[in-house]
């Protein structure tokens, strides 16, 4: 037990937690925005893969890191447009469309990677984002070392949480997005186009997801591997449910999750001899399922989630 | 743009829909072939030749279609009840693990009993793997899509543990693989000097049985009723929860059979790479078949053609093999649109 306490007060543990949580924040916020507008986006796993590949490739081809992030976001938004074309305009099954987009986007990422780098046996590397210690704040013991010596993308992730909250709850656009997911007829009655609102939300959400993927190849690592998203997208979908579709709770849920994941890696080093490592690696997925089970009863889904809207049609 | 329902859905439209989807997917895929700098017609000709151009290619295509028929059926039955089982990949491995557990010497029966026994055990394991998500859905309203997806990762790690621990073959030179299935449990070969095995016959029988179940039995009727309109089904006295649970167990069982057939029919022993995503590809198979169990056979063979053909095409013109996965992903998306266009028409104004 003492070991675990020692881990919990070490700066290294918290630094790892914030590193693990960053892509999850991007992905969870992205999924949350989509679902708040009434669209379940199961393309997340593929869009994150696409973002990881395209952002990394941009930098590898000589681009700048920040334009690489923007490029990944743009590609993500394009896949969001594809998703909403199918689910919002044509009203097709959100489940099947999402799975289709995941299959398509991840295989296309691998295809493009192999096309551009046919002979790469060991994955080539880029110069990724470096930690940027915030002046003064990074001198605070433990907290400073853990929270304020991260890469800029982690700061961006943390800043996005209050920004998304503000936009969703305090601006007319946010109200329209939330209403599109609750009662699209009411939005239409206000003279606002539900289809455009939903499309916009899915595009922005998908851009977030892609940046989450880009974090993994451009900040957490410096190379692109096959299968490197490894279910993180699905974990984000579970986190959205755990968070009851609220940005603040999403941050708490993601932090809790990332903390347990960071702890798991450290406990594995001491208990690894007794418990096989596979059981430690299972933890994130099992935890996500447990998190969903805990919250599912209380979950208040956006009422119009999964329901396509057709103008002039009664629901 | 306006979407209007058609008053009359012509049967030819339904029959033509998958072909339209395939044509669109191949058309979009040709962009990727042009990028390599190859001729599109040559490339697709190579693909067809590589898939059916010789007796070796043909048997290879049929061999690869076996797990796809099973996972395709798994998705078909579940999706018919609008139960989105995306966990066929994990259920496949559960079936394979169970067959390995009982089939590597723990129990020995004569072949006529041993093979059905392994299939039964595998199907039960696959069904059991889906029991948790379906109970969570019916009793606690936990969305099955995410739980089945996440369980795929859990199950794969679980199988990995068995292959490096209790079930590891001591003769495997350190590779994580299980001991071979005993001879009594191995599926007989179907065509001499090929890898095609009896699993193909089992898969065809499975499709026919699924079709008959959906068409002629009360269970099938209930599955369709729940899928078409859950509240109406409930109102007419169908126990929706029981139906969904039963559907899930059948679906998981079919996916488990895919695992048994890969282990006892093709490989002979369990490794961590017996499935290159057959569980996920099964969704594409089911969608292309428009959730018709008999059509699953054809669409599984077709998708298997793409995979086998793409392998030989990629060797010939140096195109990444991922083209096959891209084509499968594209066909899931395009079949959605083409099926929609059988029921609706788009009107531009």
Which terms would index this structure?
heterodimer; A: 315 residues; mainly alpha; 70% helix; 0% strand; B: mainly alpha; ABC transporter involved in vitamin B12 uptake, BtuC; two-stranded antiparallel sheet; 13 helices
Brief rundown of the structure:
The complex is a heterodimer of chains A (315) and B (349). By secondary structure, chain A is mainly α.
Percent of sequence in beta strands of chain A: under 5%
Series of secondary-structure elements of chain B, N-terminal to C-terminal: EHHHHHHHHHHHHHE
> Rough shape of chain A?
globular
Number of helices of chain A: 13
Cα-atom radius of gyration of chain B:
21 Å
Uncertain spans of chain B, ≥5 residues at pLDDT below 50? none
| Secondary-structure element series of chain A | HHHHHHHHHHHHH
Number of domains of chain B: 1
pLDDT < 50 stretches of chain A: none
Number of helices of chain B: 13
Ends distance of chain A: 56 Å
Report the count of strand segments of chain B: 2
Rounded mean pLDDT score of chain B: 92
Distance, first to last CA of chain B: 6 Å
Mind describing the biggest β-sheet of chain A? none
Main β-sheet, spatial strand arrangement of chain B: 1-2
Main β-sheet of chain B: number of strands, strand sense, barrel status? 2 strands, antiparallel
Give a count of the beta strands of chain A, DSSP E runs of length 2 or more.
Answer: 0
Number of domains of chain A: 1
What is the typical, i.e. mean, pLDDT of chain A? 90
Radius of gyration of chain A (Å):
20 Å
């Amino acid at each position: 037990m003492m070991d675990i306490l020692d881990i919990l007060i070490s700066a290294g543990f918290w630094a790892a937690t914030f590193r693990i949580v960053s892509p999850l924040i991007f992905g969870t916020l992205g999924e949350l925005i989509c679902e708040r507008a009434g669209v379940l986006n199961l393309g997340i796993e593929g869009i994150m893969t696409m973002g990881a590949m395209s952002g990394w490739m941009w930098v590898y081809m000589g681009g700048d890191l920040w334009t690489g992030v923007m490029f990944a976001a743009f590609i993500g938004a394009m896949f969001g447009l594809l998703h909403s074309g199918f689910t919002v305009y044509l009203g097709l099954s959100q489940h099947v469309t999402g799975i289709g987009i995941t299959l398509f986007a991840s295989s296309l990422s691998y295809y493009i990677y192999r096309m551009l780098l046919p002979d790469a046996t060991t994955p080539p590397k880029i110069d990724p984002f470096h930690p940027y210690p915030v002046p003064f704040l990074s001198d605070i013991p433990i907290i400073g070392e853990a929270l304020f010596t991260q890469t800029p993308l982690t700061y961006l992730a943390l800043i996005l949480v209050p920004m998304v909250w503000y936009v969703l709850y305090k601006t007319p656009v946010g109200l329209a997005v939330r209403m599109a997911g609750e009662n699209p007829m009411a939005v239409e009655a206000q003279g606002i186009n539900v289809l455009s609102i939903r499309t916009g939300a899915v595009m922005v959400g998908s851009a977030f997801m892609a940046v989450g993927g880009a974090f993994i190849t451009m900040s957490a690592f410096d190379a692109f591997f096959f299968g490197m998203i490894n279910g993180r997208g699905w974990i984000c979908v579970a986190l959205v449910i755990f968070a009851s579709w609220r940005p603040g709770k999403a941050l708490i849920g993601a932090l809790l999750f990332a903390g347990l994941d960071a702890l798991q890696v450290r406990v594995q080093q001491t208990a690894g001899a007794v418990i096989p490592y596979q059981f430690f690696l299972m933890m994130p997925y099992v935890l996500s399922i447990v998190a969903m089970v805990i919250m599912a009863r209380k979950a208040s889904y956006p009422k119009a989630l999964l329901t396509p809207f057709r103008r002039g049609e009664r629901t | 743009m306006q979407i209007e329902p058609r008053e009359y859905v012509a049967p030819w439209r339904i029959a033509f829909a998958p072909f339209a989807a395939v044509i669109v997917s191949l058309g979009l895929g040709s962009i990727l072939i042009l990028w390599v700098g190859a001729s599109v017609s040559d490339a697709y000709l190579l693909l067809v030749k590589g898939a059916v151009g010789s007796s070796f290619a043909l048997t290879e295509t049929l061999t690869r279609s076996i797990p796809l028929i099973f996972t395709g059926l798994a998705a078909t039955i579940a999706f018919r009840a609008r139960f989105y089982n995306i966990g066929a990949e994990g259920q496949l491995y559960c079936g394979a693990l169970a067959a390995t557990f009982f089939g590597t010497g723990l129990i020995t029966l004569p072949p006529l009993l041993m093979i059905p026994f392994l299939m039964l055990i595998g199907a039960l394991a696959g069904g059991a793997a889906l029991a948790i998500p379906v109970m969570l859905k019916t009793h606690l309203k936990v969305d099955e899509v995410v739980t089945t997806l996440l369980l795929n990762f859990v199950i794969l790690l679980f199988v990995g543990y068995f292959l490096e621990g209790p079930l590891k073959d001591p003769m495997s030179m350190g590779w994580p693989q299980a001991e071979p299935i005993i001879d009594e449990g191995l599926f007989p070969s179907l065509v001499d000097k090929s890898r095609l095995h009896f699993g193909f016959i089992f898969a065809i029988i499975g499709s026919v049985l699924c079709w008959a179940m959906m068409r002629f039995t009360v269970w099938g009727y209930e599955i369709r009723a729940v899928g078409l309109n859950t509240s109406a089904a409930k109102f007419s006295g169908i126990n929706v929860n029981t139906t969904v649970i039963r559907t899930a167990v059948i679906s998981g069982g079919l996916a488990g059979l895919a695992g048994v057939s890969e282990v006892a029919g093709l490989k002979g022993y369990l490794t961590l790479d017996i499935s290159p995503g057959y569980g996920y590809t099964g969704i594409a198979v089911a969608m292309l078949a428009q959730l018709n169990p008999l059509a699953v056979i054809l669409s599984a063979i077709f998708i298997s053609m793409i995979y086998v053909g793409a392998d030989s095409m990629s060797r010939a013109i140096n195109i990444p093999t991922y083209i096959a996965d891209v084509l499968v992903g594209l066909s899931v998306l395009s079949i959605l649109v083409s099926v929609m266009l059988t029921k609706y028409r788009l009107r531009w104004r």
